[in-house]
Every structure is written in C-alpha cells, then in structure tokens.
Amino acid sequence: MPAVLEGTRVLDLTSGPVGGVATAVLADFGADVVKIEPPRGDRFRALAAAPLWLRGKRSVALDLTIEADCARLAPLVASADVLVVSGPPGRAARFGVDAERALAANPQLVHASLTPFGPRGPYAEIPGYEGIVAALGGRMAVFARQVRRDGPGFAAVSIASHACAMGVVQGVVAALYARERTGRGQRVESSLLQALLPYDLVSLLLVQLAAREGKPPPDPYAVGGDMPTLNYHPILTQDGRWLQCGNLLEHLFLSFLDSIDLLGELLAEERFAAPPGAWDAATIEAARDRILLRVLERTADEWMQRFHANGNVAAEPYLTPTQALAHPDLVANGSVVTLRDPERGDVKQVGPIARLVATPARIAKPAPRVGEHGREVLAEQRSLPPRVVTGDTPPGQPLAGVTILELATIIAAPLGTTFLADLGARVIKIEAIDGDPYRQFLTRGLLAVKTNAGKESICLDLKSADGRAIAHDLVRRVDVLVHNYRPGVPERLGIDYASARALNPQLIWVSANGYGPDGPSARRPVTHPVAGAAAGGAGHQGAPTLARAHETLAEIREGARQLMRANEANPDPNTSVVLAAAIALGLLARQRFGIAQPIYTDMFSANAWANADDFLDYAGKPARPRVDDALLGFAPTYRLYETREGWVFLALTCDAEWRRFCAMAERESLGSDPRFASEAARAQNADALVREIGTALKARGAAEWQQRALAARVPLVRADATDPGHLWAHDAHVRENGFVQPCRHARFGDVLRWGALVTVNGAAERYGAGALAGDCTDALLRELGRSDTEIARLREQRVVASEPIAG
Questions:
Q1: Distance between CA atoms of 70 and 74, rounded to whole angstroms?
Q2: Spatial distance between the Cα atoms of 745 and 205, rounded to a whole number of angstroms
Q3: Average pLDDT for the chain
Q4: Cα(35)–Cα(16) distance, rounded to whole angstroms?
Q5: What is the per-residue pLDDT for 546?
Q6: Domain CATH number, residue 701
Q7: N or C: which end of the chain has fewer CB within 10 A?
Q8: Is position 697 within any domain?
C-alpha cells in the first residue's frame, strides 16, 4: 500500500514541538522529513516529548550563522517539495528562508511559515511560548473561576501548539493538493495566535451583538452557573478516583441515572417527575447530592463495568497520558505504537492522527541523533521533476472544487469541516428535520454560527424513504462524506462505507466518532469532557484537585466544580483540527494514487495528540510539569505574577532570557546571585525565586511591564487585559493580520467572523457566514433535479424543512 506523502521531501527548519509535531505527522504518512538543526541540536530536544516529535526524521546539523553552512542549505531548499520554518518572521528572513527568497529559488516549493503571532503587527516578534500566547490571547481569562482567587488562571494544556501544528498539516497537504493541479509553488501561513481561534466558540459574536444592543456582553464562561450541569458532572468514587460524565442529551443522562440505580428512586418522588431539563434549581441540587453520594458506594472500576454494560453512558476516569497509553480502546484502534530508540530504549507513544485504510501511516523510525544523516543527505543528488504550470487556485482556496457532505452534529466534526470550507471546499450539511441539536443550546442559534460557517444546509428526515433518497443523491455528487454516528447508524441510513461506495466509487468516507471502530467502547457515546478526562488534559489542568483528598460532601462538590472548570470545551476543537488534517490527507491520496478510501478519526486519539507533550513513556522520562495549587504556573520562571496593577505572565526558558529579565527589572543582583545562576539552581531555589520575582514585579503595573519587556526582548506580557471575545473583536494586531473576517449573516447582519486557522497563498476574498438550518434546502433540491412541485410536496410532508431567519 502506498503512503500518502511518499516521494515528498520536507525540510524542517523549525525549532521545538510545534513545527516538530507538524512535520512528525507528515513523516508518519510517508514524507522524507529532513530536520535542519544547529550543531548542538534543537534546544528543545531536552523536552520529555522530543522522541515523539522527532520520530521518522533524518537530522542534518548546520550552523546557519556561517556562510559555508548556508551554502550547504541552499541546494536542499532548491530540491525540496516542502519547507517549514518557525519563529517570529524575522528569524526566517535572517536565515534567508523567508517565502519570497525560498520560492524564488524553488518555484515549486510549498513554503510553510508558523509564527507566534502572525507575519506583521505589534506582537509579531514576541517569542512564541504557549503561555505567552495564552496570556496575550485572553485564554487565561477562561480559567479565572477554576480556583477561588482573583486574577487569571494558568492554562496548562498546550492547545495553541496542538491546533497550530495540525493547521500546518492541513495547509501543507492542501497546498500539495493545489500544486498537483496547478504546477505552482504555494505559500502556507499559520500562527499560534490564530490557533486559539478554534477554541472561541461564541464570544466574538456575543461581544459584537452586545455592543450593537448597548449592553454588556454575557460571559460565556459563566454559562450553567458555578457548578457543573448534571449531564457533565465529575463524580468521586469509593476508591478516591474521579470519573467524568458527559451525558449531554437527556436519554444519555437517564441511562446514567439508571446505571447507578437512581432513576427509579427519583421517579418515585414527585419533585423529580418532570423531565430533567425542567427541574428547578432546588431540585437540581437535590439530585446532585443524591448522585454524588450514590457514586461513593462503589469503586471506579465497578462503575465503569456498569457503564460499559449499559452501552449508553458517556463516562471515563480521569487519567494521565501515561495511564491512557494502556487504554484498551487506544490500543485496539492502533493509536499506540512502540519504537526502539537507540538512546532511550522502548518508547511507547501516541500513534497516527487517523487511520487511512488504503494509505496508512508508517511509523517505524525513532528520533535521530543530532546530525546523524548529514553526510548522506548532503551527498544526495535530488531534483524536482518539471511541472507544467496550468493556472492557479483562487487566493486562500487550495481546495476549490472539492465538495464535502457532512452528516454530523454538535461541535467536533462540524467544526472540522469549517476549516476545510475556509480552505475553499464546498461543504453541504445534512441536518435533522428540526436542525442540528446544537442549534438549541443558546438563544437564537448563537452557538451554531461558528460550527456552520461557510456551509450550505439542507434539513432532511432520514427516517423517510424520500429523505434517504435525497441524501443518496447527494452522496453520488460529492468527494467526501463525513459523519459522526456511532457504529450501526450509518448502516440503517444506507450511508455506511459499502453502501456509499456503491453509490460513488470515488468517495472518501470519513468516520469521526468517540473511540474509533475497534475496541470495547466502539459503540459507546463520547462528549468533550469525557475525552478531556481520559486523554489527560483535564487532569493536567485540574492536577491540584485530583491530588487533594475530599472527605465531606461539601468538599466533593467543590472538587467537582474545580474539575469541570478545568475540563472546558477544548477537546472538541482538539478533535476538529485533527479531522480536517485527516480529510486533507485523504484528498491528496485520491489525487496522487486514485485511491478513495475509508478514514477513521476519533476524539480519544485526537486528544492524545493535544497532550503530545506527555503522551509517551520510556525509562527515565521526565515528569510532566505540575501546575501549582494556586493555578499560577509550572515554575518561578514560567507563571503568572500579580503586579502593582494587573497581572503578567513570565516565560523565561534559558539563561539569556533570565539575564535580560534581571536587567529589564533593574535587579542585576538577581542575575549574579549564585542561587539563581543556572536553570538547575533556579529550580532548587524555587520558593525564594518566586518571592524575588514577585517583589520586583510589584514595582510597576502590568501594562508598563509589557511595554518594557517587549523593548528588551523579554518574554513577559500582560495576562488580564482581555478575554477571547474582546481580543478577536477589537485588537488592532488581530485586525492587521486578518485573523477575523467580515461577513453578512442571515440572522445577525454584518458581523466579524473567526478567520482561517491556516491560509494558502493569503486569505480568501470572502469567508462564508454561519448557515441557518436548511438555508439551502430548496436550492440543493433544484440542483438535484427536483421540481418546484416536488419540493412543495416534500415540505408539506415534512421530508425537508428550513428554520426561519428570525430567531
């Protein structure tokens, strides 16, 4: 079986795990990835996860500060298919590998640039550490309520790194797809700040509408009050372990109550007679206490056995990534691999991002030693075959001409296809006759605006013969079918792989469910908090809570509150970015080899990749950094500090940054203090260092510290100046880089919408607004050849429908 990217040479000039993960994924699917690193190696090789993001590559050591090694690099650039660079835009320019010069030397090149904050604007040259981006990007406001103190909360999971890496994969593969069609080189751009876009599901829209109405915007992070909803509740078991529930829909919640032998008891009491969605506040709290006390009666394993037996309960234990490596579903679905590393021995680690059945990933080579392949790579005489230039794709639309049919609900899969719509694909969404249930979760369908951006929607009753016939007609006309049904449902609808392939032999069929097709949980439901807990992200954010004993009901309630605040919605977008990358790989495989195939993605393995900094295990692996009890950060030099006025985030990762900080803070004595003279010394004297830095930073306010730090090239930014909604709506840097885009929404009028995660040859001329349910029902039926008379009959019989524009 061929590999999707076989014969593709990728030059990796990135530093650290973001570009490293992106190019590791390309290597997994067959690319020859050559990592260019300094003679002493990438300075981030010391990170615990380096064996994962270096796997499958060849290493060439070059010192790009000297002319001779720059000359050795030049022929490699001229003969590469893809060049990936990272860091502030000035870095690529200094080394002569910016897009303009690289494409001039190699007109067939796909040049991919991943920067911290974009190519231009006041933040462009700020170092791109995850914490710096999270602080400046307003993300630390999301966790302000996790612990009961004033100020922002540290964001522990590296979601910007994950989404940026997967965005680069999407962009590079889409650019290769466009190059195959046009013969032209392509320019791919993404940034860590853009990579926060997938995680704001509604705030940008809320801020704009509130301003229009002259009201303060509602706080989306306060939805549901301070305590978790009963559907999404962490629960403590008899043996002191926490389980996370994710029973979003009523029938799942009722199955959960039945599994813990509580449904019959509650139904016997008059106050619980109404459906759970109609319970008042007092009834909810009474039910909460009953649930928490009941779950204390058995161990976590005993409850999980019951949930598996029921088959309709979404719940998983809180695990660390190391524990999750042994999860039966990850193992059964091939999402865990072991490589024999010459320095570390066996390294167990997360496997491929997706299962492409006909062109699978090939993960066989461990991380290379620094410069291990320099002689052989430099001796190779590689040249690119001539390509006939046949035209170009529209700006920002490398997937123009591709049509995707989506049969998916809620967030993960629908958001994934919006990324492909932003890259030029036509996306047609089939919804239930009353629309995707997600449209009902906030007034006026606000939450569904983002997940339906750039799409066309048709509402069908798939239980009817006419509805299924319309769906099958659409299947015949599209390139990709995406669904998020559990196994068994596609067969009932006649859109399983065998049936869909019979209708359209060139169809790429994509399953995006919770656990994957194999393993004991294949038919079980999953929602985002369950994946967040099982893959290790929620436990990383909520580590202090998991480490604490909870003896009383009041303590258990507070622990559950903190864990749910830690387990926010990131697992859905974490899955979405992986899904889009997998579909792009499927499109390129069909284009290169004529192979249309089934592709399986799942929420569990996607969130393993979102925790790639720790989703591996080997002898002597350093422990994952643990957030402190006050949710301030990982270490004295990587944490939040309160200043005279406001909060800042400090990220010092090397001695040079430490010295610059001491000079900027006018505390040169700290720089010469033997207690803090090295990274090891600073770690040994952490408490004293926190006091010294904290005292120094009390001398000025956060805004002044940021101004001074940027001038001195010190990674320090204000952490409490904004939240995601206000950042995207008002920040000048965001506007200058086009990270938000204007559109006209049928219900909300002229608004700014979230921009593209990754662009190819610049931004598109326009980006579509969020589709209303069934907004293209009639147009699509006419496209399928239905007459106006037939359409009227279908509407009258409720086979098809559309929601009204007024909401």
A1: 6
A2: 11
A3: 96
A4: 11
A5: 97
A6: 3.30.1540.10
A7: N
A8: yes
The helix/strand/coil state of 504 is coil
Taking CA atoms, 370 is separated from 35, 75, 151, in Å, by 9, 20, 43
Phi/psi at 443 (5° precision): -55, 145
pLDDT over 90 at 443, yes or no: no
Tokens 């813990």 correspond to what residue?
Answer: 260
Q: What is the pLDDT of residues 549-577, one digit of tens each?
A: 999 999 999 999 999 999 998 999 999 99
Cα 283 to the chain's mean position, in Å?
36
Residue 674 in any domain: the answer is yes
Tell me if 125 sits within 8 A of 88, measured CB to CB: yes
Query: d(Cα 97, Cα 87) in Å, to the nearest integer?
Result: 12
pLDDT of residue 224 exceeding 60: no
Would the pLDDT of 682 be above 70?
yes
H/E stretch holding 698 reads none
**Backbone phi, psi, residue 456, to 5°:** -115, 140
Residue 327 confidence (pLDDT): 98
Cα dist. 560→228, 234, 284, 615 in Å?
Answer: 7, 5, 15, 25
Structure letter (DSSP) for residue 166:
H
Please give the DSSP secondary-structure letter assigned to residue 113: E
Which contiguous run of DSSP H or E holds residue 718?
A: strand 716-718
Q: How many domains does the chain have?
A: 1
Q: Is the predicted pLDDT of residue 364 greater than 60, yes or no?
A: yes
CA distances from 371 to 39, 407, 678 (A): 7, 47, 27
Domain that holds residue 664: 636-724
Query: What is the amino acid identity at position 799?
Result: V
The token duo for 600 is: 């399986």
Q: For residues 260 and 304, give the distance between their C-alpha atoms in angstroms, rounded to a whole number.
A: 10
For β-strands 186-191 and 234-236, DSSP reports them as unpaired
Q: Where are the alpha helices (DSSP H) in 40-84?
A: 50-53, 67-78
> Per the structure block, which two tokens stand in for 692?
């010294």
- Asked if residue 719 is part of any domain, the answer here is yes
